[in-house]
Design a protein that fits this description.
about 80% helix; elongated
Amino acid sequence: MLRKPENVIVKKTEDFSDRIIKMYKYLQLKQEGNRDILKQVLRSGTSIGANTAESQFAQSDADFFTKLTIALKEANETKYWLKRLYTGDYLTETEYNSIIKDNEEIISILVKITGTLKQRMQK
């Protein structure tokens, strides 16, 4: 079985999930009206951590790769929804810049991990 990545990504995605939950609660109180976007970002933002955590107990290399690939897709979707929250004036520029930085860091790490795994699996 391939060596699993350091738990740094697990910790970062757990912390990010916590931020997403806090942001959701904050914006729910702050904003009236359409909350569909908030529900979307809550779902995708917490799914990143859930899939990363699941990957730690994958049944095979392929399962490990799949879980992290799903986490990457969810991170990219979260980036989309965060931008919608910003352009829709739900988030200030400061709030957006803070959370999107964490999101992009997670995406970058997951791209590196999945790229390395894919190369190893093809050998």
